[in-house]
Amino acid sequence: MFILSEDSQRTQGRDAQSSNIMAGKAVAESVRTTLGPRGMDKMLVDSGGEVVITNDGATILNEMDIEHPAAQMIVEVAESQEEEVGDGTTTAGVVAGNLLGEAEDLIEQDVHATTIVEGYHEAAQIALEAIDEQVQEAEVDDEILKQVAESSMTGKGTGGLTAESLAETVVEAVRHVDSEDGVARDNVAVHTQIGASSNATELVPGIVLDEEPAHDEMPSEVENASIAVLDVELEVQTGEIDAEYAIDSIDQLNAAIDAEEGELQGYAETIAESGADVVFTTDGVDDRVSSALASEGVLLFDDLTSSDAKDVVSATGARRVGALDDLEESDFGEADLIRTENFGDDDLAFIEGGAAAEAVTVFVRGGTEHVVDELERAIGDALDVVATALESGEVVPGAGATEIAIADKVRQEAAGIEGRKQLAVTAFADALDIVPRTLAANTGQDPIDALVDLRAAHESEGRAGLITDGEEVTIDDPFEYGVVDPADVKREAVESATEAATMIVRIDDVIAAE
Question: Which pLDDT belongs to residue 45?
Answer without folding.
Answer: 79
